[in-house]
Amino acid sequence: MTFPPPLPGPQTPGEGLPEIVPGALPARRERGDALVGIMGEIVRTGRWEVGRRTVAYQLMGNLKLDLRDVLVPGETLEVEAYVLMGDVRVLVPGGTDVQVRGATLMGDGRTESDAFSADLPPTGSRVVVTVWSLMGNVRVRTAGAEGKLPRGWRWARV
Hints:
Layout lengths: L34 E5 L2 E3 L8 E8 L2 E4 L9 E10 L2 E6 L3 E10 L2 E5 L12 E10 L2 E6 L15
Parallel strand pairs: 1-3, 2-4, 3-5, 4-6, 5-9, 6-10, 7-9, 8-10
Protein name: Cell wall-active antibiotics response 4TMS YvqF
Organism: Ornithinimicrobium cerasi
Pfam family, one: LiaF-like_C
């Protein structure tokens, strides 16, 4: 290899430049940036950078994560949340295997699915949500690409 790399031209198209594949996603980081909230909400929607393992710390407020645009079929994402007072809501695409772990002292945890995503084939994706909470609820909802989100989930874009 010559230094500096040759400039692309008619004789050397693209030589010395990294290959760019349209639509290919960059490799996902092992750990994402920590999400920290003192008073208020932490909301992530759309295409946001998430690591294979993301940790969130919330003192008083809600944690709302929309993973529909960031989860690639066949991959596993782990979300770990430590919440003193507040709810945790995670929205995942249809066909995703969901595991909810952890404990909440005063509150409950559940997974929900809408009618549009009930019949979707499995994508091979998995989301593991581990929540340790003193007061609050944990909700993980599987939502298809179609349909309107129910009340309480309209913070996520459709």
